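Dear Dr. H.,

I hope your travels went smoothly. While you were away I took the liberty of generating a structure for the chain from your last submission, since the lab meeting agenda had it listed for discussion. I wanted you to have the full record in hand beforehand rather than looking at slides cold. The sequence, exactly as received, is reproduced here:
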Amino acid sequence: MGAWGFDTFKELLKQRAGLRGDLDSLGTSSLNYYGIWVNNAYRQLCTQNNVLGLKKNLYFPELFTSTTATTTDGTAYVSTPASTLYITEVFDTTNGRKLDWIPWKKYIEYTDRTDTDKEGDATEWVRYGSRIYLHPTPSTTGDTLTIYYKKLVADLASADPTIIGAEWDEPILELAAYKMFSAIAEYEKAKFSKEAFLEMAAGLADVNRKDEKDTNESWGVSLAYINK
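The corresponding predicted structure, in token form, is as follows:
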């Protein structure tokens, strides 16, 4: 969890802008430019795999989580967890096996996916929007699936800290400063903030991956997607 709250980020960014009060609101709106730049920077850092050309893979263990879903007899899908960026694995906890990922095109080519005589224990999955489709269509109500996924971060508000480590507070501020200075045409200051962000982020990138033992992915798809 970060050390700085959202209000602190905004105040620090405002100081970087020379305490400009004209950026405190968006016209007649109560929205704050400083807050928009902070949230945009936070969201970009936690979702994109190429932030300002950074040549290091970033990994945030705090963004990876899991939840469970329950199958229903004759229903071909379960719901995608709320605020999911991407799913890494689906595990059938009831039957003790990992389901294989398949492309959507392969799923819709299955002629038995709507055949109630061809139901069974699911062995494959594919995400399509707000649903995770299973094949075969489950024949049992109550089987538990554990869904592992990377979550989208929510926008910060009030005194909210980030959900990633406090070591990323300064890089987020520099990234927000880069966005701010670019928007107000202070290009030399934007360049400085970009370079500061890249230096900080590169230095933290390898440290954040120290606890990764079994995976080569950082932003992309999981090992289940390889050779599909």
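Two observations you may find useful: The two ends are 36 Å apart (CA to CA). Residues 62-151 form one domain.

With kind regards,
E. W.
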